[in-house]
Design a protein that fits this description.
With 312 residues, the chain is α+β, with helices and mostly antiparallel strands. It folds into two domains: 123 residues, Nucleoside Triphosphate Pyrophosphohydrolase; 148 residues, Alpha-Beta Complex (Nucleoside Triphosphate Pyrophosphohydrolase). 20% of the residues lie in helices and 29% in strands. The strands form five sheets. Strands 11, 12, 14, 15, 16 and 17 form a six-stranded mixed beta sheet that branches. A four-stranded mixed beta sheet has the order 4-1-6-5, with helices on both faces. Strands 3-2-7 form a three-stranded antiparallel beta sheet. The longest helix has 18 residues. The two termini are 22 Å apart.
């Protein structure tokens, strides 16, 4: 289970041992004694999980992974006892007592080491799937450096990148149940019968822009509300397919008019700390349109920010 003081996908305890990624001889020997995480090639990176007690990932000996997996291996790091850990993309094998589960479903429930393993593996698998060709030369690329690099036949190399995005809990600064926060409903989110999801405002950091400047710009663009006192809280990977979410708190005046950008935000409004607490406690909070308030899922950094604000 994730630490309430740490974003759920910011956890991990494995030594990445990056200096081994270019050591072909060591990697070949390490594969023979490795534990391997098989990841299905879908966006949320399904892997095998055992649910008896707390969920945990199923890691297999190299001899039990799908045929040809060695050619697609991704070196994740080394356990505290020296055991190497790899990931491979492929069909999930049948393992008694295990089931397929995606990162979105179980990431926040996994122990620290497993959460870090699956997050890293999903990020790498998604990066490889989207970089089969060099953006510079247009030539096909192949994986190298144990899955941490791709190279084309001209020698041009590229390494995994993440797109920085900000997400912000806009709030009025008041303590207790009087405190309020500004949340939005995005036009792109799927509809769920009887429910309407509201979440923290977010957006990508643009070239030449700081993350703090992006916070002020995105909130103004999406709601028309000016913010002050922008404060960094924490970050986590969001490998769907490859973002780094930078979490912030910011202050704003609830008296400021809310004018949403209808191309991005269907609705934005202020919610009290009591309303947010009721939803997180499993109680209904009816909205003006007859639907009930729904908050973002526990895996998200938005959920983490909301809980941090709720706790004062």
């Amino acid at each position: 289970m994730s630490d309430p003081l740490v974003p759920p996908l910011a956890r991990g305890s494995l030594d990445r041992a990056a200096h081994r990624r270019t050591d072909g001889q060591w990697l070949r020997r390490a594969w023979q004694r490795a534990r391997v995480l098989v990841v299905a090639p879908v966006d949320d990176g399904q892997a095998l999980v055992r649910d008896a007690g707390d969920p945990e990932l199923v890691l297999l000996p190299a001899a039990r992974v799908p045929a040809g997996a060695e050619e697609r291996r991704l070196f994740l790091g080394v356990e505290s006892d020296g055991t190497p850990v790899f990931a491979v993309e492929g069909a999930l094998p049948s393992v008694p007592g295990a089931r397929a589960a995606g990162l979105r479903e179980v990431g926040h429930l996994l122990p620290e080491r497993d959460a870090g393993l699956l997050t890293t593996a999903v990020a790498l698998v998604n990066w490889h799937a989207r970089h089969r060709y060099s953006p510079l030369t247009g030539r096909p690329t192949v994986a190298t450096e144990a899955g941490w690099c791709r190279v084309d036949d001209t020698g041009h190399r590229m390494w995994p990148r993440t797109d920085p995005a900000m997400i912000v809990m806009v709030q009025d600064g008041l303590p207790g149940e009087r405190g309020r926060c500004l949340l939005g409903n995005n036009v792109a989110w799927p509809q769920q019968p009887g429910l309407r999801r509201y979440s923290c405002l977010a957006g990508y950091v643009e070239p030449g822009e700081s993350a703090e400047a992006a916070v002020a710009r995105e909130v103004a663009e999406e709601t028309g509300v000016p913010v002050t006192d922008v404060r960094y809280v924490g970050s986590q990977s969001w490998p769907f397919p490859g973002s780094l979410m930078l979490g912030y708190f910011a202050g704003a005046d609830p008296a400021a008019p809310v004018r949403v950008d209808p191309t991005e935000i269907a609705d934005a409004r202020w919610f009290s700390r009591r309303e947010i607490g009721d939803v997180l406690a499993g109680r209904r909070v009816p909205l003006e349109d007859g639907r009930d308030l729904m908050l973002p899922p526990p895996l998200s950094i938005a959920h983490f920010l909301i809980r941090r604000w709720l706790a004062g």
